[in-house]
Amino acid sequence: MSTVTSKLALHGGTPVSTKKVPFMATGLSEADIEAVNRVLRSGMLRAATKCAELETRFAEISHAKHAMTCANGTCALQLAYEPLFQPGDDVLVPAWSYIATAAMLSARGCRPVFVDCLPDTLQIDMADAARRMTPRTRGIAATHMYGCPVDIDGVQALASKHGLKVVYDCAQSHLSTYKGQGVGAFGDVVTYSFYATKNLGTGEGGLVTCNDDNLARQIKLLRSHGETDKYLHEQVGYNYRMNDMAGAIGCSKLDRLPAETAARQAAAKRYDALLAKPEFAGVLTPLTVTPGAVAVYHLYTVKLDLSAVTCTRDELAKMLDAEGLPTAVHYPRSLPQQPAFAKHLPGQGPWPVADSMGQRVMSLPMHHLLGDEHFRVIEEALAKVLAAVRK
Ligand SMILES: Cc1ncc(COP(=O)(O)O)c(C=O)c1O
User: Fold this and answer.
1) What is the CA radius of gyration of the chain?
2) With bands split at pLDDT 50, 70 and 90, how would you rate the model's confidence at 2?
3) How far apart are CA 355 and CA 333, in angstroms?
């Protein structure tokens, strides 16, 4: 590779590519746009036939009995937590996740009990979870991070032993499977986000699945002001409904999701092979997949070995970006490192793995449109920059 020893673009050299590799691909197809147009022409903008169709199809594809669309993934977590957990409950939650998983527990009046993550997968460490049980622990809220299911057997075993309720936050892992089944088959409730950049993105949107009829009824009531008949409200609830424009985009994108997921999985294989090469091995380490799980690669996140390079992760990211390879950080700090959770921390900790990841993780471009030319740029940019910073 001719560029390996040349001057870095950040320092005035010629970049590997002046055209950046797209970090994600969230564009709508003509079919998506036409699906929305049909809703607009119908004038029926509220949740109606398209949301209902999305629910039926999503339940089937994720192996769940019930699916309920809602406004976003944060509302989905609230709809899951409220029937299962009471204020004052302790709920085990990963120290390494997006903030919403733990924040909605706090909003419910529960105490998030943060559990460290496994160093290889960055998924919740169930041995650590068992150690953090308290007399008030009532549940586990586990996130299938980056597109990869957690150790579901481990979660369910701890839950059965102690009578805990289980919520899986699947905002990043649409269509992932565990031991041959869709993740909707496991736990009490599974929640999804359809935020614009998710594998199935409708702009804003969310969905909840469960397998219990009574729980599904409670979630539906909470979603729409506890209304059982027109202007008859059996209980207090919210307006967390989706709308049919989002529903139409969701249905249209769902047609393509299996193929797009396969393309993400193929791209992940290419990354795995690339990063196993001697010039990268030991510097950038891919995450491993939970045994029994099939990951859908919402993100392709790697860990930087800071002792192998002369720069920080953020400096490395700047150098790569200048060469045409944009990266991102998911996430810059663990949840216990978030000021929002300070009040919950007394008596908790430490989280050695999660707390060190904010300085080390780096997400490389991941989407269904990554092709040969993108991988050429990715490989050359990584090789060029790592040759300059490797100790
Ligand atoms: C793991 C996780 N949980 C929850 C959410 C919240 O979803 P939303 O942004 O749709 O509210 C997200 C979204 O980024 C997420 O990644």
Assistant:
1) 22
2) very low
3) 7
Q: Are 174 and 67 in contact (CB under 8 A)?
A: no
Structural contact between residues 116 and 132, judged by C-beta atoms closer than 8 angstroms:
no
Q: Which atom of ligand 1 is nearest to the CA of 204?
A: 10
Two tokens at 95? 């120290």
Best residue for ligand 1 mutational test, from 78, 97, 195, 240 (most atoms within 8 Å of Cβ): 195
Which position has the token pair 């002792």?
A: 307
178 and 142 together in one domain: yes
Q: Which two tokens stand for residue 49?
A: 């036939």
- Other C-beta atoms closer than 10 Å to the C-beta of 214 total 9
Instruction: Evaluate whether 13 touches 7 at the Cβ level (below 8 Å).
Output: yes
Whether residue 172 has its Cβ less than 6 Å from ligand 1: yes
Ligand 1 mean position, distance from CA 97 (Å):
9
Q: What is the pLDDT averaged over residues 332-357? A: 98
Residue in 298, 301, 259 with CA at minimum distance from that of residue 24: 298
Token code pair at residue 41: 């022409």
Please state the rounded mean pLDDT for residues 3-21: 90
Main-chain dihedrals φ then ψ at residue 118, nearest 5 degrees: -75, 140
Same domain, 127 and 209: yes
Total domains in the chain come to 2
Q: Which two three-digit tokens encode residue 169?
A: 């936050």
Q: Is 335 contained in some domain? A: yes
